[in-house]
Design a protein that fits this description.
Blueprint (H helix, E strand, L loop, with lengths): L3 H7 L26 H6 L12 H14 L3 E5 L2 H12 L5 E5 L4 H13 L3 E5 L15 E7 L11 H10 L3 E5 L4 H4 L9 E5 L13 E5 L1 H14 L5 H11 L2 H20 L4 E5 L9 H7 L6 E6 L4 H9 L5 E2 L9 E4 L14 E5 L5 H21 L1
Parallel strand pairs: 2-3, 2-4, 4-5, 5-6, 10-11
Antiparallel strand pairs: 1-7, 6-7, 8-9, 9-12, 11-12
This protein binds pyridoxal-5'-phosphate.
Length: about 375
């Protein structure tokens, strides 16, 4: 069986069906015509209506499904739709769901507002709970929702321990695996039932699409496909094509993101303005041991806890950045920076402001110089106040 790096290059392609084209071309269509009434009625047609799939979307689904080792992958119009689809696949009125407190905030909002409105009871748990999750199970607990590492505070979760505890009680496990990517974290192999990604990030990789993917194991395949269909979720043809194109270079991009991020994170640990760097590949990171045990690599996203400074100093740093863009996404080729604000039931103890960096594919020396100049502005304003 081919290894993941080969699957990234080969997955989902079918040149013989597409005039020899290496990637599956864009099929812009809403409806597919049947050759005759019998085919229309007997369910044998491969394609019927584009919401239920086109050669372009199926090719991408197949590629992701092979990589994730799942039974079926579906595409959604955004990563957030992938998060909510996974939850709605498993949970309904009267069910209890345990959600990591480090979850992407819009997923939290979904649980707190729409989930609640439709009768799903959400309980947030401390991300590092591990096997202790079992103490939170109730008779109506239906799902555990993980995100590892959390995309702002990067706590690495003990996924195998949590999944084992959940499965002993017949509880499903869903996981936002966007940071790990299909290359670096084998979610289903570690006991997850539904693995999802914001493909907007590294799979697309070029900051020009929005998309999500959800992959189920055999136990959840039918429910996933049914829920996806009922909700009318799908991805547009051009988006699916661009995601497919981005996927082909995922491994080489990630190698560079990880190398540059490690160099900059290490450099930041020696800066006097920095209290702590949170990046699991660093040896002294709280999640390092779990990351080394379970992941085969990292990406370019990490956070820095600054020593306490006043707000004007932070603004002075952020407003003058030359190479880091002020932007909320990550996973593209470019570097981004944000000052993170989050709501938590179990707030982590932070020495000062949390700054999240996405390290892109620029020259690391330019990025370091940009950050160093930012720290100079920060120090100048902090001293003045
Ligand atoms: C961890 C994580 N999950 C899901 C999403 C949602 O993805 P999208 O923006 O494609 O809806 C994001 C977006 O930032 C994210 O960071």
């Amino acid at each position: 069986m081919a290894r993941k790096r080969t699957k990234i290059v080969e997955g989902g392609r079918a040149p013989a069906l597409h005039a020899g084209a290496v990637n599956v071309p864009v099929y812009r269509a809403s409806t597919f015509l049947f050759p005759d009434l019998e085919t229309m009625h007997d369910g044998s047609a491969a394609y019927t209506y584009a919401r239920r799939g086109t050669p372009t979307t199926r090719g991408l689904e197949q590629a992701i499904c092979d990589l994730e080792g799942g039974a079926r992958t579906v595409l959604t119009p955004s990563g957030l739709a992938a998060c909510t689809l996974a939850i709605l696949t498993v949970c309904g009125a009267g069910d209890h769901i345990l959600v990591t407190d480090s979850v992407y905030d819009p997923t939290r909002v979904f649980c707190e507002k729409l989930g609640k409105r439709y009768g799903i009871v959400t309980e947030f748990f401390e991300p590092r709970i591990g096997a202790g999750i079992a103490s939170l199970f109730r008779p109506n607990t239906r799902a555990v929702y993980l995100e590892s590492p959390g995309s702002l505070t990067l706590e690495v979760q003990d996924v195998p321990a949590i999944a084992a505890a959940a499965h002993r009680h017949g509880i499903a496990v869903a996981m936002d695996n966007t940071w790990g990517t299909p290359l670096h974290f084998d979610a289903l192999g570690h006991g997850v039932d539904l693995s999802l990604h914001s493909a907007t990030k590294y799979i697309g990789g070029h900051s020009d699409i929005l998309m999500g993917v959800v992959t189920a194991n055999e136990a959840w395949r039918k429910a996933l496909v049914e829920t996806h269909g009922i909700l009318g979720l799908c991805a547009a043809a051009d988006e699916a094509y661009l995601a497919q194109r981005g996927l082909r270079t995922l491994a080489v991009r990630l190698r560079q993101h990880q190398e540059s991020a490690t160099e900059i994170a290490t450099w930041l640990t020696s800066r006097p303005e920095v209290a702590r760097v949170i990046y699991p590949p660093l040896h002294n990171d709280a999640g390092h041991e779990l990351w080394r045990r379970d992941f085969t690599g990292a990406c370019g996203l990490f956070s820095v806890v600054l020593n306490p400074v006043n707000e004007d100093a932070i603004s002075a740093m952020m407003n003058g950045m030359q190479h880091f863009g002020l932007g909320v996404s990550w996973g593209g080729f470019e570097s981004l920076i944000i000052v993170a604000h989050f709501r938590r039931n179990f707030p982590p103890a932070l020495e000062g402001p949390l700054v999240r960096l996405h390290i892109g594919l620029e020259d690391v020396d330019d990025l370091k110089a940009d950050l160093a100049a930012g720290f100079e502005r920060l120090n100048r304003v902090n001293r003045e106040k």
